């Protein structure tokens, strides 16, 4: 019998053998259960996991998914996913067997999250709803691929939210100049100039050292990113392979950074140039918006502002892609393609100019009078 009571402790235990993922027969034992039913439930759940069966609970599937993904993702990326799983998925699906989750179960969950009364009456943004739904889909797709789930109920239920906000927030250069005039301290003054005129991510900014700057060549080397994970400061590789890049700098920005660095006491070039957190950057940005009267945007929107500035300057989309460190040009087009509305008109005008055609009414009548119907 695999479940029995220990006569010495009066507690129940489960002891059994199973075949592990290598094909080897191994023994498993766990003690300390107050009730026989608890020991039996634990054993059933463990064997469901080990046998790749979707009789297991969604909570157990999440444990398997988490163990797999934490090895493959940056710690900061996993922390974001883990928060969504713990707060938005497990409270609803945690105790359900994976193969008992139906499309209508998912649909009802979606409707609950889409209720405007959620999030203290503010509702969730459409992009956040999409992110939450994508996480459920990822876990259920994991079950389909590796644990014999016949199909994803999330796919059948359909999606919710939007992958992109209805309207992208960014500052024009004039708005940025109004904002930066209200910043009277050297640290935030340098931070926001770097963010606006390079388009780097906030984590990339906070990982910078003075050694990353080549002032003679007017170049910034992006090789790492900073994050706080479970209260611990972490320096890791950038977001993607393409995020490791060199960014050319205007001369005035080099001077701003050099001036800021000259004010630091006991600073070593290999140390973080901005030893702060994202919370600090957000706080001083909100204060600057209030003082300057410029509309509030997120810190990340300074990256969008830089892209908008490049496009306004006439930079080709491939240049924007490389400068922002996107892996695919399609990502850049999806994000910023709508900022090129005048491009089609420019093409038509240039074709007219290239043809050399006389478009006056009289000349046009002469061109077409010999055409047959």
- Helicity level: 40-55%
Distance between the termini: 94 Å
* Cross-sheet strand order for the largest sheet: 1-2-3
Main beta-sheet strand count, sense and barrel state: 3 strands, antiparallel
> Residue ranges: pLDDT <50 for 5 or more in a row?
none
Rg on CA atoms, Å: 29 Å
Number of helices, where a helix is a run of at least 4 consecutive DSSP H or I residues: 16
Summed over residues and divided by their number, the pLDDT gives a mean of 88
DSSP E strands, number: 8
Strand percent estimate: 5-15%
Q: What is the H/E order?
A: EEEHHHHHHHHHEEEEEHHHHHHH
Structural class: mainly alpha
Shape: extended
Tell me the quaternary state.
Answer: single chain
Report on the structure:
The chain contains 16 helices and eight strands. The relative contact order is 0.08. It is extended. It has helices spanning 36-50, 58-72, 75-93, 103-114, 126-146, 153-157, 173-181, 186-198, 202-206, 251-262, 278-292, 301-312, 317-324, 329-336, 342-355, 361-368; strands at 3-5, 12-19, 25-33, 213-214, 219-222, 225-229, 232-236, 245-248. With 373 residues, it is mostly helical. The chain has a three-stranded antiparallel beta sheet with strand order 1-2-3, with helices on one face. A three-stranded antiparallel beta sheet has the order 4-5-8, with no helix packed on it. The N and C termini lie far apart (94 Å).
